[in-house]
């Protein structure tokens, strides 16, 4: 891809292969139309760049591929945000999680078990990052679908740009993209000349990042581009006294990531060229961990009592190919193919020391996720009023994994003895104490997906355009021989001091002897069978087939060269899910109504975009852990309404303002459910003593009523170079971050499932000498060290956590603390 200036609709005047950009995007949402007319805002789909020096203060645009053809962001009738690699670097963005403040409505929630993330847009996402589910925000690299959300944590380096499309993308990108789609477009090889770049970043927590890229023309028709990155830092979570860890153990939050990419361009003929890409990524950090959602007075929030150190060994290997052929004038074809393998092992402390003397350890013993994707596109390539694109999509994924949970509980007397002696807070249980385990073994869980799609646009006249599109998707999901083991049964540990034990609790008491048969702990790599487990397995076998059509209708009106308006109706769907025990769900369906406004005003010094939307979900998919099993289920529906805005304003050649803002109302429709958290607080149980209530009107997770990001940069020219300070502030009103459909207070725990309104601040200053030989930068992220809650869970809700019925202990994932550092980069 490249960046281009634009004067006529759809006609680039000049391609700028190396645009130095201090890009500015983000928004201020104004609820007042009068203010919009004055110039303060920007609509929900824009992303633009402001070069450091450009006559007249024009703002340059980014070309994106969201419509399956190259279009400028401002000429793309979608809610889409895009950023170049330079802008990402200037904002210290290294992965999707560090990009959230730059995109309206985007939230990336970290999780520990698998190194995965939960991605939300407009309050809609998926809390299922396991092999059992699919993300609601689809993730693409170079236009190729990445099925596992762990791929979203991959490092962003040597990119041409990132584009984030919000709302359903059910016609051209059909894989479950009901909430939106993210596409990373890597830097393309060039036969024009040799060039490259390199940078190094140093910061606190022993942070060091190095990356480099070189482009090598091998002939007039062949070019090779190689890029690599390594990023590592210490963890953010301190070990509390008594933690069972060895000296030198990585703290939770520690990162150790690296990536490498080689891209080969081969121009076989003027009308036929191909790009082959080999990509490698690995993460051997420590993963994340829940922290106290209700820390005690004086307690350091970022600390935990650890009996299982975090370990993660995750790698992704991908081979991709892109072939472009123009067999005749007016016709272009494209093939996109890929093979990818994700492998992971990891261990994490599931109880995080909230209940001393009780241990819950989660382990992925082994896992492998193989996927193959093939897509063929055929599209028009002319100046005709009729523009069309069609294609076939084939996708297959085969997953296999073994995931274990070991739980143990020592006696009160042993716990008191440990605390008094200052030794580790947990020791192996002995005779008469509790131990249990679970193992989830999926040897062959597969998805086969096929789709056919077509979309066409027609220019009625220079101002009016209509677009229609449709897609039919056929999914086949199945599990062959999947097993759920409970050793010896579903855990039902007794709270310490309990005298009268149930048969289930008695079965979990450690008995005299040696071996797992006596303790019911599997242990790392332990054999799981009826003899060692003391139980038989539950069957996960399932077979699910489903077909769904989706469509798009859109009208565009462009009264002037610099103003575009559009209105669209789009449908999408999320494929049904398979859960533990072979349970299945219905598909999630969505209809979205959208009106957008994009503009370049004041002699193109201000880019202002607005997007209003209303999305209606039917059978919305939800995921929740109940009694140690991940359950997928359908809510009756949800309605999401909102206005998004983005703007970029350059009043002078030295000043740049940009921002984004969102007003959102995301609510569940009427449906009956049970509030698990309130029931437990009231010593009740869902399905027996707790009432079922209508939760219609409850706010969706990660759907604050208002959120905004404001950024300002100013260039100070000196006799030796240019100094550019930058400030970026992000604000969000109160939001609900707990699982489930209830955003009411938990009795006795006010506000535990909410994140209060907050503001974070990022600061930096860059220096570039007159000869532009390098760029140096100092930065502070989260300058006020604000702790922001991303997820909240009651860790004693599950059967097997030995808490008293009303003794609820809440945990949460948080953002990173304040970090600072410096970066030096150069291009040659």
UniProtKB/TrEMBL annotation:
TonB-dependent receptor plug domain residues: 73-181
The protein, known as: TonB-dependent receptor
Gene3D superfamilies in UniProt: TonB-dependent receptor, beta-barrel domain, TonB-dependent receptor, plug domain
GO BP, one annotated term: iron ion transport
PANTHER family in the record: FERRICHROME IRON RECEPTOR-RELATED, TONB-DEPENDENT OUTER MEMBRANE RECEPTOR
Organism of derivation: Rugamonas aquatica
Main localisation: membrane
UniProt subcellular location: Cell outer membrane
